[in-house]
Amino acid sequence: MAENNKERTQLIIEPGKAEKNYWNDLWHYRELFYILSWRDLKVRYKQTVVGAAWGVIRPVLTMIIFSVVFGRVANMAKGSLSPYPLIVFSGLLPWQFFSTALSEASSSMIGNSNLISKIFSRPVNSG
After folding, report:
1. pLDDT tens digit string along 66-95?
2. What's the chain look like in SS3?
């Protein structure tokens, strides 16, 4: 009988409230995301021979290849006022940053899903 007299706490899920809790939870656990991203960066660049310079070498090599293929072979550099490799580099740099950040973020979230599910799982009492 003592169990029936206990008050039960219930989680009421209302429409429109999930977004507020989502952003609050992300802000609350921002240190976790910082630590996980810093760990991923250290592991990635520690295992390469050139280290963090690879982050600069990769866009430069891609710029050289694009400049040769599209600038010389396809003659797309004709008629431009600024140097074609500079135009290519200014387009490649944000694109590579975005694509690498997106793919690595999703890989990190999948790789660390056990940590994230432990933190973000809220108990739901069914009554």
Report:
1. 888 888 777 776 777 788 888 888 988 889
2. CHHHHCCCCCCCCCCCCHHHHHHHHHHHCHHHHHHHHHHHHHHHHHCCCCHHHHHHHHHHHHHHHHHHHHHHHCCCCCCCCCCHHHHHHHHHHHHHHHHHHHHHHHHHHHHCHHHHHHHHCCCCCCC
